[in-house]
Amino acid sequence: MKKQASIKAPPEVTLYGMTRHLADIGRAYKSMVPGIRDTKVEYLAIAQKGYPGARLKPGEADGLLSVGCMVTHDKRALHMEAFCLQGMMFVLTFQGILSVRTNHKKHLVHPGELLLLPPGTHFAIGDPVASCARIGWLLLDVKALDLNTPWRWPDWLMLDEVERREFTRELVTRGVIIQKVSDDFIQVYTRLAMLSSQEGILHRGSRLKQMISLSMLELLDFFLCGDGGIKEESPSLRSVQKFLHQLPERLSEAWTIESMAEACHIGVSKFSEQVNILTAESPAKHLARLRLEKACELLRDPSQSLRDIAQKTGFSCANYLTRAFARFYHKSPKQFRREQLT
Fold this sequence. Notes:
Helix content: 40-55%
CATH topology of the largest domain: Jelly Rolls
Largest sheet: 7 strands, mixed
CATH superfamily of the largest domain: Regulatory protein AraC
Number of strands: 15
Strand order of the largest sheet: 4-3-5-14-8-11-15
Number of helices: 12
Shape: elongated
Radius of gyration: 22 Å
Strand content: 15-25%
Mean pLDDT: 82
Low-confidence stretches: 1-23, 227-232
C-alpha cells in the first residue's frame, strides 16, 4: 500500500450551513504520522478538504467525507485525540482486534464486526494502544449534528425514500454499536476500501457512489433480516482466541506452531488462519512480538539479568534474545535499558 503524507486540516469548514471546527481531526491524524513514516502504519484515504487523504474532486461524490483503509503492523500507543464526528461513520475490522474509544467508553472490535458511529460521537482509535489490525471506514455527511437532528443522505445514494427512512431509523435506534455483519457486506466493503488504495481509476466518482450504495443496501438487508445474517463464531476461533489471551502468561514455554495448534485442538493450517484473523499476524510473528514486548518490560527492572529475561520470555539464551531484539527494535537490550533508566 502507498503511504499518504500528512494533510494539514484547516481551522474550520462549513457543512450543511453550519461551521464546525476541524482542527481536532488534524491533531488526531498527526498522532499516526510517525508510524506512517516508519511504515508501521499504512494509511490510505480519499477525502473532502479538511480530512486527511487524497483529495476528492469537486462534485465527484458530494456528501462523502472520507473513505479509506488502515493497517497497523505492530502494537503501538497512538495517543490519538478524540474528535467529534460530523457524519455517519462505519468502521469494519477485517483482521486483528481494534481498540477504540467512543464518548469516553472503551470498545474492542473483532474481525467481521462493524462499528456504527452516528453524528456527534466523540471517537478515537487506540486505548491508547492500537494492536495489529486491518480496518476500513466510510464517513458520510447526513447533514445532522446528532441522533436527534433530521438526517438527509447524499442525493446519489441509490436507496428510495422508504428505504432511506428505514435505514435511518435502524441506525438512529442502534446508536453507537458493534454489530457482526454478513459475508456479503464484508465483500462489498473490501472492494470499497480497495478504491482508496488505487490511483488513476477511471470514473472513480461513479464507482465510489455505486459501491457505497451497494454496501448500504447490504447493511439495510442485514438489519431487516434480523439475526439470520449474523456470523456465528466457530468453536475453533473461540479456542484460538482463548489461547491467545493466555499466551502472554506462558511465554517461557518452548512453543512451536505445532504445539500451539495442539493446545487449541485444531490443525496447524486452521490455527495459522485463525491467528491471522484475530491478530493480523502469523503465529510465529505474534509469539515473537509478545516475547520481545515482555522483554522490554523486564529490561526496565535493573535487577533482571539478560539471562533471566531470556529464560522468562522463551528465548534459548541471552545471545538469541539480543539478536532478536536488535532485529525488531534496531538497538541492543543493553542500549534499550540505558535509555529507559537514564
